[in-house]
Structure formats: C-alpha cells, structure tokens
Amino acid sequence: MSTPAAQQAFGAAEGADIAARASSLSKAYGSGETAVLALDAVDVAIARGRFTAVMGPSGSGKSTLMHCLAGLDSVSSGQVWLGETEITRLSERELTRLRRDHVGFVFQSFNLLPTLNAAENITLPMDIAGRKPDAAWLDRVIDTLRLRDRLGHRPAQLSGGQQQRVACARALASRPELIFADEPTGNLDSRSGLELLEFLREAVDQLGQTVVMVTHDPGAAAHADLVLFLADGRIVDEMPRPTAEAVLERMRVFSGASGDIPGSGSGSGRAARKN
Ligand code: ADP
C-alpha cells in the first residue's frame, strides 16, 4: 500500500514523522434510523515522539477515535495507518499481533492482576506473547517511573498512583510504536494524577515515545505538545503548546455552541447524534 497523501487538516505538520494516521475515518454504531455517527470523515496525523491530547465534550467521539486508531475497533469507512501499515486492511489475527507488538494502552482502570507483583504485571503481556523484554529498556522504564523499590509489591500493596505507574510501565515495556491513554488520571487524586502526567511527558521527552491521551481535563491536556479538539465526531480545532487556561477557554466556546459542559466528567453524554 502506498503512503497516504499528506493532506491532513489537523495533527502533525506536513513532512513530520508520523506514528499513526487516519484518512476520511468514519465510524457508525448501529444502522438505519438508530445509527449514530461517532466519527465523521476524520483526517488526522499523529506525530512520532510527541504527546498529543484529544479533548471534546462527552459523546464527541474521543474514545471511538482512540479505539479506531489503535485497531481496537473496526471502522465503517476510511483508512487508518499505524506507522507504515494500513491497519484497516488487516485481518483480525494480523491486527491482534500488530497491536500486541506496537501499541501500549493505559486505561482509567489500572487492570493489574492482583495475584502478580508489579514486576510480573509489567512484563505479563510480553510473557504471554512469548517475547523477552529488552532488559536495558525495561530498567530505564522502571527507573523513569520510579518503581524500582516497588517491583515485589502486589497491586493491593500499592497506592492508586503507583498502580497506574505500573500500568504505564506495562504499556511501555515492549517499547511500542504508540501509547494510547484513555483518561489515565481519571481514578487518581490530583497529586498522583500530576505525577502520572509528568511521567507520560518524560516517556516522550526522555524515552522518545509517542503518546495519545484522551482527556476531559484542561490541566491534563496542558502537558501535551498538541491538543486536538473533537465535536460531533469531527476534529474541529487544534492547539499547539497548550496551557490549561487556553484549553479551558476553547472548551467554553464549544460548550456555548453544543450545550454540553466540558470538564464535567464522562458520565452524562449529550443525546446521541442521529445519522
Ligand atoms: P467520547 O469518548 O467523546 O465521550 P465516544 O467515542 O464514547 O465519545 O462516543 C461517540 C458517540 O458514539 C456517542 O454518541 C456515543 O453514544 C456513541 N457510541 C459509542 N460507543 C457506542 C456503542 N458501542 N454503541 C452505540 N453507540 C456508541
């Protein structure tokens, strides 16, 4: 498959090194009268080695975009590339393998196995895949996340912040092409949340990783290099070098237009958009 045309309106600048890309990406849930168009012909490019935040009102399509870019969800139309590979052409089996080897995930819930200690949790996906972690890389990840003295602890013996750092280390362990984080600070107190965001920043700055983070928190988005704003399944704006104040201001403009209240949590979505 040839490289896609570089005509993205949002995301990485033309000529930038691209970690993931979507072209005319649409995703509908259901069909007919009740169909919901969660993504509406999205064009976006995610720059490699950068930290990108995705913001927007509840129901605007943030999670769907993340899932489609990560190959966790099928698309209705359009194309998605992870690196040079067009993942929208892959079989389920090829996709599972690509995801396993090239994508790391950090979710709001830490999803650690309670019977395993931190070290075992960190390497579990690689153990399952029969891959040996690169010891030097793993050491760097563990030290960057300051988990060295917690490796023998089980999740129940760790604070929420420490558990999320273990989940981050697990996502980083295989040195993936891309790390997707979906509201990673959602279950953390503000201090642990701030620490986690600083670690994601370090993963980008010191370890050269690419991070895409979905968040509704302007303070969290301010840690990114670039914020993409979604509304009604479309990317409607972007902000390089964001500050919390500027992001909040931008969200206020959207909330005036859409009637939703940004930053109010992910619980109450606005009425689903009918197609
Ligand atoms: P966000 O992450 O911004 O809150 P989502 O991507 O979760 O938004 O949802 C976008 C739209 O798609 C919403 O209208 C939502 O109700 C709808 N949607 C998401 N997942 C499903 C699903 N599995 N089935 C039906 N509709 C869905």
Task: Please describe what this structure looks like.
There is one protein chain. This protein has 275 residues and is of the alpha/beta class. The chain has a single domain, classed as 3-Layer(aba) Sandwich (Rossmann fold). Helix content is 32%, strand content 24%. It has eight helices and eleven strands. The strands form two sheets. Strands 7-8-9-4-10-11 form a six-stranded mixed beta sheet, with helices on both faces. A five-stranded mixed beta sheet has the order 1-3-2-5-6. Strand 5 and strand 6 form a beta hairpin. Helix 3 packs parallel to helix 5 and helix 5 runs parallel beside helix 6. The chain is globular and about 50 Å long. Adenosine-5'-diphosphate binds next to strand 3 and helix 1.
Gist of the model:
The chain has helices at residues 62-69, 92-102, 118-129, 135-144, 160-172, 190-205, 218-221, 244-258; strands spanning 10-11, 18-29, 36-47, 51-55, 77-82, 85-86, 103-106, 178-182, 211-214, 226-231, 234-240.
Features:
alpha/beta, 24% strand, Rossmann fold, disordered C terminus, 6-stranded mixed β-sheet, 275 residues, binds adenosine-5'-diphosphate, single chain, disordered N terminus, globular
What does the secondary structure layout of this molecule look like, with pairings?
Layout: E1 10-11, E2 18-29, E3 36-47, E4 51-55, H1 62-69, E5 77-82, E6 85-86, H2 92-102, E7 103-106, H3 118-129, H4 135-144, H5 160-172, E8 178-182, H6 190-205, E9 211-214, H7 218-221, E10 226-231, E11 234-240, H8 244-258
Parallel strand pairs: 1-3, 4-9, 4-10, 7-8, 8-9
Antiparallel strand pairs: 2-3, 2-5, 5-6, 10-11
